[in-house]
Write a structure and sequence with these properties.
It is a single chain. The chain is an alpha+beta fold. It has helices at residues 2-27, 91-103, 117-120, 137-145, 150-161, 164-177, 200-210, 217-220, 243-246, 286-303, 398-409, and strands at residues 63-68, 74-78, 112-114, 134-136, 224-227, 235-238, 250-258, 262-271, 274-283, 304-310, 315-322, 328-332, 337-342, 350-355, 359-361, 369-377, 380-388. It folds into two domains: 47-306, DD-peptidase/beta-lactamase superfamily (Beta-lactamase, 3-Layer(aba) Sandwich); 311-409, D-Ala-D-Ala carboxypeptidase, C-terminal domain (Peptidoglycan synthesis regulatory factor (PBP3), Domain 2, Sandwich), CATH 2.60.410. Helix content is 31%, strand content 26%. Helix 2 (91-103) packs parallel to helix 5 (150-161) and helix 4 (137-145) packs across helix 5 (150-161). The N and C termini lie far apart (65 Å).
Amino acid sequence: MNRWVYFCTVMTLTASLLLPAQAKVSALDVPPMEGIGQINGADETLPAASSEATVQLAQNSRSAVLMDADSGTIIFEKNSHDKLPPASITKIMTMLLTMDAIRDGKLKMTDKVSTSEYAASMGGSQIFLEPGEEMTLEEMLKGIAMASGNDASVAVAEKIAGSEQAFVQMMNDKAKELGMNDTHFVNCNGLPADNHYTSAHDIALMSQALLQYPEITKFTGAYEDYLRQNTDKKFWLVNTNKLVRFYTGADGLKTGYTSEAKYCLSATAKRDNLRVIAVVLGEPNTKTRNNEVSQMFDYAFAQYASVPLIKKGDPIGEVKVEKGMDAKLNIHAERSYQVLIKKGDAKDQVRYELVAPQSIKAPIEKGQSLGKIVVYQGDKAVKEYPVESAQSVAKADWWTMFKRTCSKLFFVKE
């Protein structure tokens, strides 16, 4: 009897040790997918920067962010999630939706945009559009980007969505898509309104999204231009962002001012391979605003470098497709990937790995998550990027499956 009790006790202890281990193994059949869908990754603060939390930047601002535009890594932040009025920085979202419409083939730069009485009635900064006046979309973008035209913003919004109200809904939908959780828009130009707010963090996100259209800097980076040329109403445009003239490498993006918001700026500059975004809200005056953004740029360019990791179009791996019309799915980089490092750090210690399941069952939709790219600096993971399917793969019909089975039986390549 004692032997039987001893035997049962041993078996029970053995089972308790084996079962958790077996469960753990089965959980690893599919690689972990944490971080998938976080395209911008802007919530991630650079590990190396955490040791420099005492750096003094944007001291006079109410809120500020310094971001690497390519990787979305936050270099510096101050009250970055405070919900504040953005003034005309709102127009970054207006320009972003305009560029989206051009990308999707809904608009062309040469399309005519007509001015409604409502658009013409906008106060504040404007290009003095008259009711019924027409300009090309390109001219309207100049008026928005350089002169901060409230009237031009509404005219373009009405062209895209039919009304400013419908366009504002698009703005809020896009904000949600970008992960701008501190944001709610009420209008398309940033004129004072209740419940119209965003944060420095969210402004950096939409600025990063706008810079995915490099051609926008043709407008945001120009210091001066003209509208209504060859007419008696020739209008001189001078960029409200003076850094595009006085700071080497600066080519955008948007200023803002109201008595409530004070002096605001989302600026971008590029030197060598590094592009950064600096956002300040609530500065006391223009001079302080520009000086503090320049200091943020100086800090970024002095301390950091951007290391190219993968070029657009480079192959990064493949995934087998179970019961699909294609037996495998080749994964190529949809864009260039770069990683931010401190100057002096060894570049050869930066590497990446593709984390994805070995196989996925068909059907596969275009844009479906396949896994992620994990970037390492030495042995430490510093960044993650989602990987999505660039094409759809339909489920294989019976004839395709029959041929595939026969080819395997007789060692014949498909």
